[in-house]
Every structure is written in C-alpha cells, then in structure tokens.
Amino acid sequence: MDVGTVPPLQLGFVGEIEKQPMETEAGGSSNPARGRKRPPSPPGDDEEPSESTPSDDDDEWSVSDNDNQGADCLCTLDNFPKAGCDYEEQNHILFTYPNIELLGPLPIRLYPAFKSGSHVFGSDYNLHDTSETSITSVRDCSTKCRCGPMFLLQFIDINIAGYHHARPGPARIFGFVAARDKVQPLRNYVYKRDIRNCEAVSVKQNTGMARLSLRSPIRVISMVSHALIEFELCVQTEDRPDDEPKGDCLIEGCTEFTNFLASKSYIEHRRLYGYNCALDVKLAVLINAIEARIDVKVLRLGAIANGINLKVYAKTSGFREVIRLFEGAAPKPGDVMCFVVAVETYNYLDLYIEGSPGDSAVLEQKKQARSSWKCSFGSGYHCSDEQVAELGNFGEVLVNVNWKSYRKRQS
Q1: Number of compact structural domains in the chain
Q2: Where do the DUF6598 domain residues begin and end (predicted)?
Q3: pTM of the predicted model, to two decimals?
C-alpha cells in the first residue's frame, strides 16, 4: 500500500483521546477543544461502505442544537450580556464579567466591521476588497510530488444567541459570514443570503438561540497562525414604510482566530457578544491537513409521493462533531453538489448520507422510513475515491472525493 494514502473503511471507532488545554483570551486555562477525538478502527481486508436502515448505529450522526450551548450553559434572555465593539465594553466581557464562562462558549473579542478608512485588520486582510475568493491554482506534481500539509480551519456550526425575537413565527435572517486567510485575503463565504433569499430559523424562547445553515466554502481556509472571520447578519422586518430598510442589524463585526502553539488538532467554541445578540462559532483547527473536495451527484430518485429529502453530513479526522454539509430537498437527477472539508493527513473523512420522505410526510412516517449510507475515506496527496451510495427506495447518489494541498515544498 502507498504510504501516502489510507484506504477507505467502514465506520467504526475505538477509544477516545482528550485534547490538550490551551490558553484563552478570556483568561485562565480552559479547554476550547470540548469535543473528543476518536481514532478510526483499522480497516479490514473485505470491508465495504455500509448501507443501512435506521438503527442505533446512526445515533452518532444525530445532531442537536443543544450541543452548541457550551459546557455548563446557564444563560437565558434575562441574564444575557450585551456589549458593543467598544474596546472597554469588550474588555469587560472578556476579563471582568462575573462567571462569563458559565453563560455559554468562552468569549472572544468582537471588533467593529470595516466600513472605510483605517481598521486594525484592514491591511492584513485587504478588508476594502469585498470580492469573493476563488479556487487557487497549484503547481503540477506530474513528475515529482511537492505537496505539503497545511494548517486549516474548518467551520462546524454557527449560531445566533441571546436574540429576543418578539414576532410570531420564525426569524428571517439574511447577511453573510466569511473567512479571510493569507493565501488569498478575499471573502470565502460560509453563509450568504440576501433579503430575497432569507433563511427562516426557529428561535428558542428562553435562550434566543438559532442555528444558521452554513454553506461550503469555495476552498479550505488556511490558518498557519491566524485567520479572520467577518460577518453582518440582519433580520427581516415586514412593517416598515417602503422608503425604509426592510431589515434590522442583529450583529456585525469581525474577529481573528489565532494558533501559535498547538501541535495537535483541536475544536474551538467561542462567542462574540454584541448589542442585539451574540454569535457562537464552533470550528476545528486541523494541524497537518489537506482539502477533501466532495462531489455528490444524484443518479436516481425513487418515486416517493411526498418527495425526497437528503442529508449529507461529514466528520473529520476522528472528531465526533458533525459537519452539516446539506439538509433539504434532494436535487434533480444529474445535479452535482460540491463541498470541501479539511482533513488531517493520514486520517479519515467520514461521510453519512440519508434519504427520507419529503417535508409534507407525517412525522411518524418520516421517523420510520429513511435509509442511510456511510463510509470513511482515507486522505492522501493526489488520490481520489468514488463510491455509489445506495439509499433503498429513495434513490442512489455518486460520491467522489478528491484530495488536494495548496502548499508546495520548494524544489
């Protein structure tokens, strides 16, 4: 077997490894890596991707918004801290607010959004340019491989928290969340919706929390030592005069995530406090990693009266956190969905795909009638793998995983 690749295997894990504590800006020694990492079991000689109907084995792929509230969350709308981008207000949140660590994820400093003129991150990240990043070309390795591992950032979940939603029904969110890195300091969107395509989200009454449906970035996000996220999120309003804005700003600004000391990959879960709400960001920092580019092509859909929903989930490098790549109505046959996920070298990308009845099906029918497929793909420079995911009566999809590094060693 080529030492640069790890073969696919059927899912199965043994043991758990706790990540090491790291220093945080809020002071003290805390562990941002609240997730636990599980090394995959060694592959057997005859193992194939698994196809299954609902079972206890699928519980490890179940997701809940309660997972994103922090270790000992005691925060409700009644005691939720509010703060602007002012330096002193953020210092109070970070260093002197009583028991801030019990109110949710540890805070990280919220910096003002760039509008014009100077900004603390303006020159480092080219903030005046709001263009979207593109896929970076890399040198050919046809004669000799010069690929090297990268330090990468992988978003897992983003939630708003502490938002008092006084209107009936869901909140309709629009705006953007984007990352910038030093490879190409342009916006790499992980959330982007305009007011005509706002997202209807359910807001929890007691905590004001709502999860945003992230999209895949165009390429993986580099984080050799630091990376920036910037955001502007608004909520749609319906009762404004025609000559007034149709949305209120929930939170806007930016912050920088840094990694100077870590030698092992870890999960970080942080909260940015604003005036109207907070933004909770859960991400993985992956040391010695490469990009997995995942193409999911719908080959066939079953004849289901209520239509078909698909879920495409991922886990990276043995971490238990589920990355929700897609949830919604299945695309038409022939359509291709593309995602990128950061994965450690000599490790695994775990994929889970589920077919179920459409949204109009009754709840009990949706619980019982679903079919899932899961497989692990070993990372390696220049390698690729293709599998067909059989989803019973719901159809089948073609999964193609290609691996890529944007870092090249000098000749």
Answers
A1: 1
A2: 152-401
A3: 0.84
